[in-house]
Design a protein that fits this description.
The protein is an alpha+beta fold. Helix content is 25%, strand content 25%. The strands form 4 sheets. Strands 4-7-8-9-10-11 form a 6-stranded mixed β-sheet, with helices on both faces. Strands 1-3-2 form a 3-stranded antiparallel β-sheet, with helices on both faces. A two-stranded antiparallel ribbon has the order 5-6. It is globular and about 45 Å long. The mean pLDDT is 89.
Length: 203
């Protein structure tokens, strides 16, 4: 979702980890993308904001994933507060899924020292396209499946390592493939709050 870049100075991952551990940053959420620091849900003027559509769509997807995992407890789910180490980057996807077999047994807080198996990024109008592409490339390099969700266009892009990307529209169904067996979710259900009343009446 929304980001502000608080510094133009590149940081190494070691510098970043030390910087976010400072007391003044304890209640703030940061990503390290290509050496630059970005604060989650913060506008360019420093105001704390969240785009309503993006936030709602992320909650809907998270609800269905959580319900699936309650019935099939194969892994753990994070929301927009949960960060992961992705190579020399630090990412906080809007939703992250990691299998129990890969979750670090010695986890003591902070960014999970493992990559997510699934990262869901819900895009708002103010997201930076270059950052989206950088994150996508790095996710795929570590074999993370990525769902990029566009509320504005009511589309979901499914990116799977070593496979051709798929674009899903309102008439399609999102599925968990081998990663989340038996998980299915209608794309129309994802974007249902954004559909106008007349379209709802016709379905």
């Amino acid at each position: 979702m929304l980001h502000k870049q608080p510094t133009q100075v590149r940081m190494s991952v070691v510098e970043f980890d030390a910087w976010v551990a400072k007391p003044e940053n304890a209640d703030r959420l940061f990503e390290l993308i290509d050496g630059f620091v970005y604060e989650k849900n913060t506008a360019e003027d420093g105001r704390m904001v969240a785009h309503f559509d993006s936030s709602e769509i992320a909650q809907i997807i998270g609800y269905y994933l959580r319900d699936h995992l309650m019935q099939h407890p194969i892994g753990r789910l994070s929301d927009a507060d949960g960060g992961y180490e992705v190579g020399d980057q630090r990412y906080i996807p809007d939703i992250g899924f990691i299998r129990k077999t890969r979750f670090p047994k010695d986890y003591a807080g902070g960014y999970v020292k493992a990559t997510p198996d699934l990262a869901v990024e819900v895009i708002s109008a103010t997201d930076r396209e270059p950052n989206i592409l950088i994150k996508l490339s790095n996710y795929l390099a570590v074999k993370t499946v990525v769902w990029i969700v566009y509320p504005e266009f009511q589309q979901v892009q499914v990116h799977t390592p070593e496979k051709t990307a798929r674009i899903l529209t309102l008439e399609d169904t999102l599925d968990g493939s081998e990663l989340l067996p038996d998980f299915t979710l209608s794309v129309r259900d994802i974007f249902k709050p954004l559909l106008d009343d007349s379209e709802e009446d016709d379905t």
